[in-house]
Design goal:
Rossmann fold, single chain, 43% helix, elongated, five-stranded parallel beta sheet, alpha/beta, six-stranded mixed beta sheet
Length: 501
């Protein structure tokens, strides 16, 4: 039962409204014709009353003065509904300035009265109940979207809806949706990957420069945040502002396979597939077998790609504190690479304490958000805004949490990465979330054509079943990995910003 205290010096004339209000819901209305009677009652029963209704005039007393007395002298913070004939803007502003948020003009309409009373007494409960009641509907809507997704744009929408759904669905319901989405996306991407590679206008990362070439000028900064997924970006972007920039486009690309830096970042920034990089100059491509830095010749590769596309020669910079040296000039398209997030993900596997800290994508997203709000990326944007007209913020691949091992047996296969393997004379355990391509050359990869290449999908990771393989499983399980096929690894953001004048 909800209790309402109503003060009006003509309270008997309001009897029809009061009866309607009591009949319409679980309300009891306590009526008063003088302020003293109301105050005396509240002194003894203030915990009983849910809402107070005040008329603007109570005999010779002002309703506003009574309101002030309730608030300041008696410290009564019960919600108040004010009844008034005044409609002048100045008077309404005075009500609001004194803390009165709910007022009803005379003559009082029952529908207005009921709406405000219901909102004050049951609004929060009703809103929460509505959100809860929508959960099955949201589940069905997102589930339908997943089943019907037949384009990369639709899968981007799935990511967006999943990120939002996680805020309202319980863990079990969300996990069902998430697993469904990963399984369906794996099937979609596996069977359509060749089309993305050979499509001239596809969203594959090799088309990045061609797609956005109109923004690539001598006053353009291409900010490459290695290992940042579209999934993470959708989680944090509403909390990030760009004070000196305005957003022109908010798009996406899809990573190459394998979805790792050596393959995807060099292709993103050159417009060249890995096989083409090797064919242009064999020394530019460093395969997975050695200890040499895989992106050793990346600046040369990037400049070669810009030249082929007839774009101005870029300056390629890897983030360091030298970037903030006063007086440094920029008169070329500048590619600024920030590898910190990729390095952090790799460190989480090597150091158990870091793995425990980054127990999920939410933890990783928090680190990324801080970099954008008050960390390195924010500092870069603030410092360099005066040097460039356009900022292209992008990434090459993302990471996903792996959980389920898939066993590999045989002798000749590589690399160490648990999300993809290639070679000969080996076999992979049957699993419907493992993709097999018989000829890596058809994927434009500089790998021997007689080799097979396997990619792990969703939450799978490859483990060689020999020796102390259980320790290997323990090491990788629950860690962030990339190289395979998942929504988090494959989709990356591309955001175009223009400096505010």
């Amino acid at each position: 039962m909800r209790h309402i205290a109503w003060l009006d010096d003509e309270i008997t004339t309001l009897k029809p409204l009061i009866e309607l209000l009591e009949e319409s819901g679980n309300y009891t209305v306590h009526t008063f014709s003088t302020a003293d009677n109301l105050i005396s009652y509240l002194n003894e029963h203030r915990d009983l009353i849910d809402v107070i209704i005040l008329d603007e005039h109570i005999g010779n007393d002002s309703g506003l003065e009574i309101y002030d007395k309730l608030r300041s002298e008696l410290q009564i913070d019960i919600p108040v509904v004010f009844i008034t004939r005044e409609e002048e803007p100045a008077y309404i502003k005075e009500l609001i300035s004194r803390g009165i948020r709910h007022y009803i003009p005379k003559p009082v309409k029952f529908s207005n009265l009921l709406a405000i009373i219901t909102d004050l007494t049951e609004g929060e409960i009703l809103r929460k109940s509505f959100e809860v009641s929508r959960i099955p509907q949201q589940f069905r809507e997102v589930s339908s979207l997943i089943y019907e997704a037949s384009s990369l744009k639709k899968w981007r929408e799935v990511i967006n809806r999943l990120v939002k759904a996680k805020q309202v669905l319980d863990k079990e319901l969300f996990r069902d949706l998430y697993n469904l989405a990963q399984r369906k996306f794996f099937q979609y991407f596996y069977h359509n990957y060749a089309n993305f590679l050979y499509g001239e206008d596809s969203a594959i990362v090799t088309n990045f420069l061609a797609r956005y070439r109109k923004y690539v000028t001598s006053q353009t900064l291409i900010l490459v945040v290695d290992n940042l997924s579209l999934w993470i970006w959708e989680m944090i972007k509403q909390e990030i502002s760009f004070p000196n920039w305005e957003v022109v486009e908010d798009g996406f690309l899809v990573s190459l396979l394998p979805s790792v830096t050596q393959f995807s970042r060099q292709s993103l920034l050159s417009g060249l597939f890995p096989l083409e990089i090797q064919e242009i100059n064999p020394k530019y491509w460093i395969d997975d077998t050695g200890d040499e830095i895989k992106t050793k010749y990346e600046p040369e590769v990037i400049k070669q790609g810009f030249q082929i596309l007839e774009l101005p020669e870029p300056e390629v910079i890897y983030y360091s504190e030298d970037l903030f040296i006063s007086g440094k000039t920029f008169n070329k398209p500048t590619v600024l690479i920030i590898p910190a997030f990729d390095q952090l993900v790799h460190l989480t596997v090597e150091h158990r304490n870091l793995k425990e800290i980054f127990s999920g994508l939410e933890d990783f997203a928090l680190v990324v958000k801080r970099s954008f709000t008050d960390g390195v990326i924010r500092r870069i944007l603030n410092h360099l805004s005066k040097h460039f007209h356009y900022l292209i913020f992008c990434s090459d691949h993302g990471s996903t949490i792996v959980e389920e091992p898939v066993f590999v047996q045989g002798r000749h296969f590589m690399p160490f990465n648990p999300r993809y393997k290639y070679g000969e004379d080996f076999r992979v355990e049957d699993d419907d979330l493992v993709a097999l391509f018989d000829n890596p050359r058809e994927l434009k990869l500089p790998i021997k054509p007689q080799f097979r290449i396997y990619f792990a999908g969703a939450d799978r990771f490859f483990v060689r079943k020999h020796g102390d393989y259980r320790e290997i499983i323990k090491r990788f399980r629950g860690s962030l990995q990339h190289g395979g096929i998942s929504l988090e690894e494959i989709f990356v953001p591309v955001v175009i910003l223009r400096r505010k004048l």
